[in-house]
Write a structure and sequence with these properties.
The protein is an alpha+beta fold and about 190 residues long. It has one domain: tt1808, chain A, CATH 3.90.1570.30. It contains 4 helices and 6 strands. The chain has a 6-stranded mixed sheet, with helices on both faces. A hairpin with a 2-residue loop joins strand 2 and strand 3. Helix 2 packs across helix 4. The relative contact order is 0.17.
């Protein structure tokens, strides 16, 4: 018979596994909604939208990879990144801004973090929240204007290194689960 500690550990691992699955289901639902929204409501063409974008992040001698769910380009320029998550959007704001600053040079102008219920739009230059809700995601014409007016500048090498470390720290945190997904479960 297994001792009490092993039984408790198995229960905890089982709960975490279910919560991760629930979180991935919510993120997948958000990806579907964003794909529809960009193409059908925001005016972006299929060739404007890259999905499941993986990019290299080098820190010292080490090479890692990060990803964004969407990279939107207009007028031949990378303009917006979107990360779909489960759980608290505000906890992922810094991650998506770091990715937006690293995914290309110069950095993209807009970063979005979304779940199936809401979206937050951030100005990559300042890192500040500039809009909430799916309606705040710029339509293609707005993005074209932003790019023409934008003054996206390259980041200093020091700032780039900080952004890389921030992004990789967030990427290492895999446990992005919705609040209360298994509320009230007794593990012991």
């Amino acid at each position: 018979m297994e001792d009490e500690f092993v039984v408790r550990e198995k229960k905890i691992l089982s709960i975490l596994e279910r919560e991760l699955e629930d979180g991935e289901s919510l993120a997948a639902e958000a990806r579907k909604m964003i794909a529809y929204l960009l193409a059908e409501k925001k005016g972006y063409l299929p060739e404007d939208i890259e999905k499941k974008v993986v990019f290299e992040v080098k820190v010292g001698q080490e090479t890692a990879y990060s990803s964004m769910d969407f990279l939107v380009s207009v007028s031949g320029k990378r303009a917006m990144v979107i990360k779909c998550v489960a759980g608290s959007l505000s906890s992922r704001e810094r991650q998506v801004v770091a990715a937006a600053r690293l995914i290309g040079a110069p950095p993209v102008l807009v970063a979005v973090v979304a779940d199936p219920i809401n979206a937050e739009v951030l100005d990559v230059r300042t890192g500040k929240l500039v809009g909430e809700g799916f309606g705040a995601i710029p339509i293609k014409d707005q993005m074209i204007q932003m790019i023409s007016e934008g003054d996206s500048q390259l980041l200093s090498p020091e700032r780039l290194e900080k952004e890389k470390r921030i992004l990789l720290a967030f990427d290492a945190i895999r446990c992005s689960v919705p609040q209360g997904a298994n509320g009230g479960i007794d593990i012991g």
